[in-house]
Design goal:
The complex is a heterodimer of chains A (440) and B (411). Chain A has 440 residues and is mainly beta. Helices cover 8% and strands 35% of the residues of chain A. In chain A, the strands form nine sheets. A five-stranded mixed β-sheet of chain A has the order 1-28-27-26-25, with no helix packed on it. In chain A, strands 2-33-30-29 form a four-stranded antiparallel β-sheet, with no helix packed on it. A four-stranded antiparallel β-sheet of chain A has the order 5-6-7-8. Chain B has three helices and 30 strands. Classes of the chains: A mainly beta (440), B mainly beta (411).
Chain lengths: 440, 411
């Protein structure tokens, strides 16, 4: 009898806890504004002014502690952003779209410009061949601190799908390897001609770069030892989304995962090249993922394009759901960033970003998920940020977000010659409290 | 008179607007007409059509009002299927691999007497390329949609797949082309006898990005009322080098391909002959080794002859067999590979063009005024291989992906 009572009590407690977790929702009225330290990207100056205005990339930390992010000018064939006009595109060397890779030293809090993508990939960008106006995928690194990244065009979204279209043909997402110690870059070519690169992961064990293209979501990989390129089919397509293909996952063993058209995950075996569908259903209406992080124990944590957080264990094929990032499951809330603190058992997000379906009154909410208790905490609404696409946690539990947002001088938001607010790419720093109850 | 409740619709409108998505920064897709439905062919891990088994190879509208379709397995998947659709739903009909072991692709469908479907099979190029893989050969088979009965008509050539077929119901013959050997054959439905007319395309093996394939093997056979079969193929010729080109110890000639030549095999003939016409080609490109010059699609024209689409240039042309005339109508897009044709309910000829790397462009040709039109593509991530008209005159556009959709286009 006592055992039954204990069982009932435990069951009730679990029910209440899970009910509490699933019923959590952000109270917009109680959210406080949050001003975080923002470190602007360097480089890409033209006429003594930064041409940068955007960042859509994931970030990485190298063994020396430096964090790597970037800033793109977003210049494309259709538009020139900032205090510049169309003529500047012709005058500026490496003109039509370019991106600067930067490093941030957490000790000195200094940002350093490292290299430009167009120059590293020898793209003579011009009216017919726009350059890499941004990075829209991962800046990846290996255990020696070598970096890998690829390009993406600036404006002209339609161009993602029309590919080669004379006279406006983006050459394609060039693959670059960069060694910060020697400052030497190596150009590996373009895996999908005329197609950009979005997801990008380096499989160090096999010396293979894995990636996907946004147009038709083609999965490809390059063996850097043999320089063999293999292209696979459109595995990463997420057809419930209108057209947005941005993500893939690589786990610690080098297996790759894609959200598929039947609402589950498709798995790629890097050794056999076998492709299988895992029999699970991802949460939310869109049943996909827009940002992911893999733990040292090889557990995948991800957030869907409509804001549902979930985890997946590849050993057991078990999926766990954590609920909606702002507790509004009927409201899509675009959150393309996620960071994991394994020691403290937390996930971090800046929820509600430019580029997707969002609750307009709940933009840029710094969100903490206590994984152990499945409990969300909302630290506040980040000021000055418009989009955040990459995040990571350092060993000292500091959280860094790769964002773009207002260009603020003093307390004033700077505007361009047309009266539009100027934006800049930033690395944004958040020092979370150890005790999450202080966020209540 | 003002109602005291006029604020209610305004409140509802406000509430609706406040929850509207702010998403939608891209445009494109079909510009006229409408894509009214998209139907997933794949059933996912539970099957019967699993991931990698839904790439559509062909579709045919039959008299019972259903469109029957065939699939091939992709990227290591094991089964190919026959399904049917009415533009509202997809129903699985037959796992062909379960009855014809080792066949992973239904490469072509034809309709015969009494509404019986005839089809041919093949397998992965990697298996065809590996003699040790032990592929026995592609089958011909029939399927009766009314009874669900199927009949294996046997293997045509040992170790060879079948690329395409055409059926002569009057004379009870199926014509086909083996792959990759490129032999033209006929199969007598009544006697079960096969006749090999020999090689019509010398295997042109290409290994690109680690994957092998063979170029130039005819993809389409056209059959007229007299029982004559037409196809396009290459002619390989040796060109003598000039004095300046010859190197000591080197060869004195090089071989070149001349593609897009239309051949015919008349009923009763033993050997195909050149008709004297070639398909429309950008001159100078026909012998380029990167340039596959042939017919990608063909359909009987309602006003006589055949409408054809070319592989590389994507030209639409009319081939008139009785006069061996080719009339180039040009192209409605700047891309390649006009790979599928179908008449819509509005009498216009609809076309699907583009390689797998390109958008799946939908175009149309209005025979009444002779105008070509580019309509756009069904979806930004669509990768389509076949179009077909359904019983309502709509255009069904089918994909060739791991989890394929059918897009329903209403002109």
């Amino acid at each position: 009898m006592k055992i039954i009572k204990t069982f009932i009590l435990i069951s009730l407690a679990l029910m209440i806890l899970s009910a509490e977790a699933s019923c959590q929702a952000v109270n917009i009225n109680k959210l406080k504004p949050l001003r975080l330290k923002m470190y602007a990207a360097e480089g890409l100056k033209w006429k003594n002014e930064s041409a940068q205005n955007t960042s859509w990339n994931k970030i990485t930390q190298t063994p020396d502690g430096r964090i790597w992010f970037c800033g793109g000018d977003h210049w494309g064939t259709d538009e020139t952003v900032g205090n510049f006009d169309q003529a500047d595109k012709y005058k500026r060397p490496w003109g039509f779209g370019n991106t600067a890779i930067c490093s941030f030293d957490p000790v000195t809090e200094k940002v350093s410009f490292e290299l430009e993508l167009d120059r590293a990939s020898a793209i003579y960008s011009n009216a017919e061949t726009p350059g890499h106006g941004k990075i829209h995928g991962n800046i990846a690194s290996d255990s020696r601190g070598i970096l890998y990244f690829a390009g993406y065009m600036g404006m002209s979204y339609m161009h993602e799908y029309t590919r080669a279209f004379y006279p406006k043909s983006y050459a394609g997402g060039a693959l670059i390897k960069y060694d910060p110690a020697t400052k030497k870059s190596e150009y590996f070519g373009i895996p999908i001609p005329y197609g950009a690169t979005v997801g990008l992961y380096y499989d160090e064990k096999r010396n293979i770069l894995n990636g996907i293209s946004p147009d038709r979501a083609k999965f490809w990989r390059v063996n850097l030892s043999t320089m063999e390129l293999n292209r696979y089919e459109s595995m990463a397509r997420m057809s419930r989304l209108d057209d947005r293909v941005r993500e893939m996952i690589m786990d610690k063993e080098g297996f790759c995962y894609f959200a598929n058209d039947v609402g589950g995950l498709t798995k790629f075996n890097p050794d056999t090249q076998g492709i299988t569908d895992i029999d699970i259903k991802l949460p939310g209406k869109l049943m996909d993922f827009r940002a992911s992080v893999v733990s040292s124990k090889n557990i995948i944590y991800a957030i869907s394009t409509d804001g549902f957080v979930w985890s997946f264990d590849p050993r057991t094929n078990k999926m766990e759901e954590y609920g909606h990032v702002i507790g509004m499951p009927d409201q899509g809330h675009y959150t393309p960033n996620i960071a994991l603190d394994e020691e403290w058992g937390r996930l971090y997000f800046i929820a509600g970003n430019h580029g997707g379906n969002v609750a307009e009154n709940a933009l840029e909410i710094l969100t903490v998920l206590d994984i152990r208790n499945k409990k969300f905490y909302w630290a506040g609404q980040v000021e000055g940020v418009e989009g955040c696409f990459g995040a990571l946690v350092t060993k000292d539990h500091t959280v860094y977000f790769s964002c773009f947002g207002n260009f603020i001088q003093g307390e004033k938001v700077e505007k361009d010659q047309n009266g539009k607010p100027i934006t800049r790419p930033y690395l944004v720093k958040y020092n979370p409290p150890e005790n999450l109850d202080s966020l209540k | 008179m003002k109602s005291k409740y006029t604020w209610i619709p305004a409140l509802i409108l406000y509430a609706g607007l406040s929850t509207l998505s702010t998403y939608g920064q891209r445009a494109g897709k079909i510009t006229r007409g409408a894509v009214t439905n998209n139907i997933l062919i794949s059933n996912g891990p539970e099957g019967p059509i699993q991931g990698g088994e839904s790439a559509v190879t062909d579709m045919i509208l039959i008299k019972n009002g259903w469109v029957y379709g065939s699939t091939r397995a992709t990227w290591g998947a094991g089964n190919c299927h026959i399904f049917r659709t009415d533009g509202e739903k997809v129903e699985h009909i037959l796992n062909v691999t379960s009855i014809l072991a080792g066949q992973t692709s239904i490469t072509d469908l034809c309709i015969g007497k009494g509404n019986i479907l005839f089809a041919c099979t093949s397998t992965y190029d990697e298996i065809l390329d590996d003699a040790a893989a032990g592929y026995k050969g592609g089958h011909l088979f029939s399927f009766d949609p009314a009874t669900g009965k199927h009949q294996d008509l046997g293997i045509i050539a040992s170790g060879q797949g079948i690329n395409c077929i055409a059926i002569d119901s009057v004379r009870g013959k199926i014509f086909g082309v083996t792959y990759p050997a490129g032999h033209l054959f006929s199969f007598n439905i009544n006697t079960g006898k096969t006749q090999d007319f020999g090689e019509i395309m010398t295997p042109w093996r290409v290994k690109d990005l680690g994957r092998v394939s063979w170029r130039g093997v005819p993809k389409v056979l056209m059959l007229d009322d007299a029982g004559t079969v037409y196809f396009s193929t290459y002619y390989q010729k040796e060109i003598n080098m000039t004095k300046q080109e010859i190197m000591i110890g080197g060869s004195s000639s090089y071989s070149t391909y001349s593609g897009g030549l239309i051949y015919r095999l008349a009923s009763g003939d033993e050997q195909p002959v050149f008709t004297g016409v070639t398909i429309p080609t950008q001159q100078g490109m026909d012998s380029d080794p990167l340039y596959e010059n042939g017919i990608a699609s063909a359909i009987r024209a309602q006003d006589g002859g055949f409408w054809c689409g070319t592989i590389n240039d994507g030209f639409l042309f009319k081939f008139n067999p009785s006069t061996s005339a080719v009339i180039n109508k040009g192209k409605a897009f700047q891309y390649w590979n006009l790979k599928s044709l179908a008449y819509g309910g509005d009498g216009k000829l609809y076309m699907l063009g583009g390689r797998d790397e390109d958008n799946s462009w939908i175009m149309c040709y209005d025979p009444s005024v002779g105008s070509l039109d580019c309509l756009g593509w069904p979806d930004n991530t669509a990768q389509c291989s076949v179009i077909c008209t359904d019983a309502k005159g709509r255009i069904l556009i089918a994909e060739n992906l791991r989890h394929s959709f059918i897009w329903v286009y209403e002109p």
